[in-house]
Amino acid sequence: MFAEMKSRYLILFTILGVLATLIIFMLIGADAVTTEIAVQIAFYIVVPYFFFHYYWGKNPDWSLSEVATTKGIKPWLPAIVGMVFVSIAFSLAIFWLQLTILSPAFPWLAELLLEPVDMQGGSGYEYFMLLTLVILAPIVEEFVFRGVFLTRFAAKTSMWGGILISSLLFGVLHLDFVGAFLFGIIASLLYLRTGNLLLPILFHMLNNALAALSMYVPVDEVFAIDWFVVTTMADIETKAFANIIIMIISALLTAWIIYRLAKGLKQETKAHGIVEPLAESDAP
Q1: Of 26, 69, 149, 180, which is the most exposed, with the fewest CB atoms less than 10 Å away?
Q2: Could you give the angle at the alpha carbon of 65 between the alpha carbons of 62 and 68, nearest 5°?
Q3: What DSSP assignment string belongs to 167-188?
Q4: Which positions, given as ranges, span the membrane (predicted)?
């Protein structure tokens, strides 16, 4: 299914869609909040809808259950929860490392990154952003990065080539590049191991839901992790040791997770028929 979808068209249409939306809303004098919502709608709804609708329209025999199904996901749920917490811990430690590197030379940038997210568009804007973060982004990004990009690049290069390229592109889309890159590798392996896109979608949703929760509820009141989470410039130094420990432990656990998911991957991938060779003339 995904092997027939041209990734270059998806990239081109996404860029054109976002640029066209920005230009139109700038020309009509829309405010920043309205423009941001319009761009999110173009990126997460309009372009993906027309792209996937085009290919599904050409192939009426395709079924969504071929790539996403609830069948067989129950045994994976505890592992997904554990992987999410490891991923979040690693990302928080990497955030501390970024601040440690930036603060001596660019203290203003470090302070900017530590600024809490300010929802200035009212309750409607907040609800839309939450819907995008927790529901739309995980579904669309998994179909795009683990579905189209992973499958196409793996077919044109190699299985690990597809995993690394699609995860690099996923990392570029996020501020937390290192954390997002490793997150992308784990999500890719989940899909390749099971042939079920619903698993990385759930992995993504839970991760984003916890991130969204932290915007509204102080992390120390819910997760008791204030001892290493950096929220002020002073925390960069005072919580350095705790973050080094968290980084080492979470990095080792991440490596172990990737190793376990990658073990026997070729056989699983062949069994699910995810990565299939493309014709030489069939570019990504």
Answers
A1: 26
A2: 120
A3: HHHHHHTSSSHHHHHHHHHHHH
A4: 9-31, 37-56, 76-99, 127-149, 161-191, 197-219, 240-259
